[in-house]
């Protein structure tokens, strides 16, 4: 793996992150992303959105993202994505560990991730990092009219 540098996203990154997710992230069965929503996340929790940059040949190129969401109670991981040309080099694992380290600093005791049943690729990386489905629970959802974000 070339040199991967992690840092928290700032407001100036929102547009780049949205564009990145358009070509690198899983997008089925979920609300649409927007710059406004990304900025809202960064304002509410400036350390939640972690970006990975390749400081090797393509110096400064955004190659991965993860949201390490801490709501004061539970630890939720979202938007794990690695640039198609940089996959299978350990970047996904580095991002998962960064999220887990954040949770540990905050006192979290268990991390969870939403993984589509049809996303074999996503399932493979979670399994490789020690995650497993929890068959006793399922996710219940209700879209909220007042907000495009959920
Ligand atoms: C899933 C994703 C984040 C993995 O990122 P990555 O940087 O390639 O992952 P890593 O290199 O850290 O892979 C870690 C392990 O996951 C498993 N894995 C990852 N990609 C795999 C593949 N294509 N086939 C089989 N196993 C795979 C392997 O066990 C791998 O370890 P190994 O390379 O030593 O065998 C990336 O493929 C991606 O962005 N996919 C599209 C978005 C997505 O589905 N995100 C997950 C949402 S739940």
At a glance:
The chain has 150 residues and is α+β, with helices and mostly antiparallel strands.
Protein described:
The longest helix is centred in the middle third of the chain and has 16 residues, at 91-106. Helix 1 packs across helix 2. The mean pLDDT is 94. The protein has a 5-stranded mixed beta sheet, sandwiched between helices. It contains 4 helices and 5 strands. The protein has a single domain, classed as Aminopeptidase. The protein is globular and about 45 Å long. The N and C termini lie far apart (34 Å). 31% of the residues lie in helices and 21% in strands. The protein is an alpha+beta fold and 150 residues long. The site of coenzyme A has 21 residues, from strand 4, helix 3 and helix 4.
Task: List bound small molecules.
Answer: coenzyme A
What is the CATH C-level name?
A: Alpha Beta
Q: How many E strands?
A: 5
Helical/strand content category: alpha+beta
Summarize model confidence as the mean pLDDT. 94
β-strand percent reads 15-25%
The CATH homologous superfamily is named: Gcn5-related N-acetyltransferase (GNAT)
Radius of gyration from the CA trace? 15 Å
In the CATH hierarchy, the third-tier topology is known as Aminopeptidase
Please outline the major beta sheet.
5 strands, mixed
Basic shape: globular
Main-sheet strand order equals 1-2-3-4-5
Give the terminus-to-terminus CA distance: 34 Å
What is the H-and-E element order? EHHEEEHEH
What ranges have pLDDT less than 50 throughout 5 or more consecutive residues? Answer: none
**How many domains in all?**
1
